[in-house]
Each structure stands twice: as C-alpha cells, then as structure tokens.
Amino acid sequence: MAQLKDQMVSFLTSDEIKELVENLASQIEADYEGKEIVFICPLRGSIHFTADLMRKVDLPQQVDFVHVQAVERGGAIKIVKDISVNIAGKHVIVVEEIIDTGRTLSFLRSRLFASAPASLKIVTLLDKPARRELPIKADYIGKTIEDRYVVGYGMDSEELGRNYPDIYALKN
User: Which pLDDT does position 71 carry in this prediction?
Assistant: First the structure.
C-alpha cells in the first residue's frame, strides 16, 4: 500500500465529493418526485457512492447489487452476481463511480432493459469520455474528467485504495 500512496496526487477531496453527491441527489429528487426508485450498485467500486447517494436522496427507494466482470481484458463480459429485485415496471438508476470504456455498463444496461423497467437511467460520479469504446452516456454526471487513472472512494488500483475517502490521481 505504501507504494500506491507514493504514486498518488490529490484529485478530489471528500468535501468536493460530498458536494457532487448532493448536487446529483438534488437532480434525481427533482426528476423522480413522488416516485419510488431502485438503485442498482455495480460491485465493487460503486458501493461508497451508492451509500452516500442513497442517504441524500429523500425518496422511497430500494437498492440491489450486481457484479459484472470482463472475462479477459477487452473480452466477453459476464454476470458474477445478478440482481434479485424484480425491476419490471420500476424506475431504475444504475449508480456508477466512474464510466471509462463503457463496455461493462453497456452490457449491464442491456441486461436490465430486458427486465422491462418503467425507466432506466445512469448516474456517475466521474465520467471519462476520452476512453469510451461504446456510445453510452450517463443521465447524471458529477464531474467529467480527463483520461487519468484515479483511486479512492471505491475506485482501486489492483484492488487497493478503495477505502480512501478522497480521490487521487496516479502519477504517470
């Protein structure tokens, strides 16, 4: 872990993240006023963002978890753990900590659409369009960033760094 810390520079503080989460929560509340929503949290990276967002969204809500994984880099994608909530006819929001290539998110969106939700939207804390391989866009974006590798607040480098309350960019 010490080696990882040596490679990090501050990118977003926990206070800046909190402000982004509050802004996104306000947008979601305005769009879904009087409706119940189901948050879908892709594991593992989105768990911090999902928990914080849920606490800020003052609407009836459920949450479920999904684990989607590429079999090999750039290869097929598989479901490791599927959702258990019936989302048919429900308002669904997929909560992503960061959208990078968009491959796993595009796969997940297609899988969720097959369950006939009333609506399906995507919220992301960070959007990195420079790396996009598929034409997928979030409906709610906290911050658009350049093509840089970030860790903390759920995001990792080889499974390390998820626990940091701030987000750091790795030095090149």
Answer: 74
What span, in angstroms and rounded, lies between the C-alpha atoms of 112 and 82? 10
Residue 170: DSSP 8-state: E
Give the model confidence (pLDDT) of 5-42 as tens digits: 788 899 999 999 999 999 999 999 999 999 999 999 99
Cβ within 8 Å of residue 19, ≥6 positions away: none
Beta strand pairing call for 61-70 and 119-127:
unpaired
Write out the catalytic residue numbers.
100
Domains in the chain with CATH codes: 14-143 (3.40.50.2020)
Average pLDDT of the chain, as a whole number:
93
> Looking up tokens 């802004």, which residue turns up?
23
Which of these, 6, 2, 3, 13, lies nearest to 152 by C-alpha position? 13
Strand partners, 140: 123
